[in-house]
Amino acid sequence: MVKRTNGNAKKEAFFKTTKAFSKSFPILAGVLMLLALANTLIPKQAYRLIFTGNKLLDPLVGAVVGSISGGNAITSYIIGGELRQQGVSMLAITAFIVAWVTVGIIQLPAEALMLGKRFAIVRNAVSFCISIVIAILMVLTLGMA
Amino acid sequence: MLSVIAYVILGIYDFALLRNALYALAGLIARIAPILLLVFMVMFLTNLFFQSNKLGRFLGKGSGLRGWMVAIAGGIASSGPIYMWYPLLSDLKGKGMKDSLIAAFLYNRAVKIPLLPMMVYYFGWNFALVLSIYMVLFSVVNGVLVQSLAREGSEE
User: Fold this and answer.
1) Terminal alpha carbon distance of chain B
2) 0.85 surpassed by complex ipTM
3) Tens of pLDDT, residues B63-92
4) What is the C-alpha separation between B101 and B87, in angstroms, rounded?
5) pLDDT band for position B117 (cuts 50, 70, 90)
6) Which 105-134 residues of chain A touch chain B by CB within 8 A?
7) 3-state DSSP call for residue B78?
């Protein structure tokens, strides 16, 4: 009796999970296709052209560019490292890195569909603002240029 | 659908770029397939072992400090692209997980312990450590704000 019950529970959990997953597949496929397209069309060198050296504007630009970028966090570290070599401020680079990993404009439609439109918009907006706050705090805490 | 249309348009204008995009897509799928399997397993185990009422105690209303710790630790421990975790979080949300904890989980995904050496290489130990601490602290701020602002809209 116990074994049959356990077997039934596993079957039920499997079907529940499969059903939830199959609902998400079209959305996930769309996100993957968009990310691959963005990674192909936007060259890495483009990031260097965006930062002008303005200490007020650059963190905002960093947060915006990080928000619309996608992919592995490692990419943001590599780009951030190269930007640092180019003399871009750590304020901008930190905002860029934090926004890259916490804000996701490309996946916003998928997040809205899965977790709710209001939740997705609010979460990304708050994360965007926090990325700039963290960048400022980092610079103040570590005394970076 | 829009993505497919974008690929078709790209193919018409520049077939070489389309080929590159398709290679990038194949690479992306190959990288995330193991993570997708992991997410499926976690969802399966959650559905197997946790009923809604039990989950609510850990992650729902009244879960308190324990809920925050579970969300923070879960976010840090989770791997793979963020969108891979949407199905699980959607499922948990349906079972009573608070918006604040979902937001905290998603925010803490930015704290990537396996990638710390890379961050240290580029920016130093101080930067990596302080940033990680700020990220965890602000994940709570993020969660509280999201819960408050997202709820305000739904009550109107």
Assistant:
1) 33
2) no
3) 788 889 999 998 888 877 788 888 889 988
4) 15
5) confident
6) 107, 110-111, 114-116, 118-119, 122-123, 126-127, 130, 133-134
7) coil
Q: What percent of chain A has pLDDT over 70?
A: 86
Q: Which residue of B has its CA nearest to A115?
A: B90
Give the start-to-end residue ranges of the domains of chain B: 50-155
Take residue B47 and report the two structure tokens written for it: 């559905």
CA distance B2 to chain A (A): 8
Q: Dig out the tokens for B55 from the structure.
A: 């989950």
Q: Is B97 helix (H, G, I), strand (E, B) or coil?
A: coil
> Does the distance separating the beta carbons of A31 and B83 come in below 8 Å?
yes
Is B110 in contact with A73 (Cβ distance < 8 A)? yes
The pLDDT of residue A3 is: 45
The three-point CA angle A127-A70-A131 to 5° equals 25
% chain A with pLDDT above 90: 34
pLDDT confidence tier of residue B139, bands split at 50, 70 and 90: very high
Residue B153: both structure tokens together: 């809209």
- Could you tell me the residue ranges of all domains in chain A? 1-41, 43-142
pTM for the structure as a whole: 0.73
B137 touches chain A (CB under 8 A): no
DSSP states along A41-56? HS-TTHHHHH--S-TT
Q: Which residue of A has its CA nearest to B23?
A: A36
Amino acid type, A34: L
CA distance linking residue A141 with residue B104, whole number of Å: 23
Residues of chain A with pLDDT under 50: 1-4
